[in-house]
Amino acid sequence: MRVDVLTLFPEMFAGVFGASILGKAQGKGIVSLNAINFRDFSDSKHGTVDDTPYGGGGGMVLKPDPIFQAVESLLTGDEAAGTPEGDGQKPRIILMCPQGETFTQAKAEELAKEEHLVFICGHYEGYDERIREHLVTDELSVGDYVLTGGELPAMVVIDSVVRLLPGVLGNETSAVTDSFSTGLLEYPQYTRPVEFRGWKVPDILLSGHHANIENWRRKEALRRTWQRRPDLLGKLELSNQDKRWLEEIEREEKLD
């Protein structure tokens, strides 16, 4: 996968792209991560990329021309013209903005299937609407709160997507069992020692009975989701066994 980020602050990405999972993924040649300053594509001798909004109002708005030129400079021949078969395999061009679709694990899994992602990180008051209408394919938000710019949200999305690529994680099952990957929050995890300050690991995890352990993990994932994010349960197709476990969980919690 190739990931390009258009930003006014490419230096913000140096540490993130070079460390931990993202750094290892680049080292393995699984992903190419690039931060590009779109100020370099300004036609102004002063590198101006924003201007006052038509109609008045406070703040500055990012101009369309530097953004369009920056994106077009990143397209390969096939991406710019479409493939000979006409299937138009262009990159996903993602605008990070508070008006966008809320980013989810399902969206991360969708984007992980792409070969080329381009992220646009804005600053100032907003974007010229023509960027939304005629350039981007996706608008994403990481939550209902205000940040200084799109850089931190882009880092969040990129990390979430890249870790799903084959070969990135040392244990390929890790991404499958993470919270939200199954639609549930993850079950409790334990490691050595068996007893720590009087708190013991549940006996079932020491039993070696894999079927029972899997059942325990499923039930505890349901419990944790029921306790902390019950809204997620309404979005799932629960099996009859899941429903029985949830009934048990409700009874058990009432007793506590």
Description:
With 256 residues, this protein is of the alpha/beta class. It has two domains: 2-162, SPOUT methyltransferase, trefoil knot domain (Alpha/beta knot), CATH 3.40.1280; 179-255, Trp Operon Repressor, Chain A. The chain has helices at 14-18, 20-27, 64-74, 77-81, 105-111, 129-134, 151-162, 174-177, 210-228, 230-233, 240-255; strands at 2-7, 32-37, 50-51, 61-62, 92-102, 116-121, 126-127, 138-141, 195-196, 199-200. Strands 2-1-6-5-8 form a five-stranded parallel beta sheet, sandwiched between helices. Strand 9 (195-196) and strand 10 form a beta hairpin. The chain is elongated and about 70 Å long.
Strand content: 15-25%
Q: Please, how many helices?
A: 11
| Order of SSEs | EHHEEEHHEHEEHEHHEEHHH
Oligomeric state as shown: single chain
What's the CATH C level of the largest domain? Answer: Alpha Beta
Mean pLDDT: 93
Task: Name the CATH architecture of the largest domain.
Answer: 3-Layer(aba) Sandwich
